[in-house]
Design the sequence.
């Protein structure tokens, strides 16, 4: 099951790559070091809400739509895993 953190990291990384933006260029837009982008993309650090909004804006993403997509992923994953019997019940 993909965690929401992994999904957010994937969405932001995918958007950056699809737009042809290098990590260093995104970091410059954000006024941050390149390691900031690298670390959240590799899930070494989490973004707080303000940071997420800054990154979404820098990538020209609709932050509300990103959150809606994450919510749908979370609900789908939760529903999928709820249908699988618990192995410890045997």
Sequence:
């Amino acid at each position: 099951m993909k965690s929401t953190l992994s999904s957010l990291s994937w969405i932001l990384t995918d958007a950056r790559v699809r737009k042809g933006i290098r990590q260093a260029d995104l970091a410059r837009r954000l006024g941050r070091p390149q390691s900031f982008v690298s670390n959240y993309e590799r899930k070494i650090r989490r973004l707080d809400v303000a940071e997420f909004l800054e990154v979404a804006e820098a990538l020209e993403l609709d932050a509300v739509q990103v959150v809606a997509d994450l919510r749908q992923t979370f609900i789908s994953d939760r529903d999928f895993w709820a249908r699988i019997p618990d192995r410890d019940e045997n």
Q: What stands out?
A: Residues 63-82 form the longest helix (20 residues). The two ends are 22 Å apart (CA to CA). The chain has a mean pLDDT of 88. The CA atoms of residues 61 and 72 lie 17 Å apart.
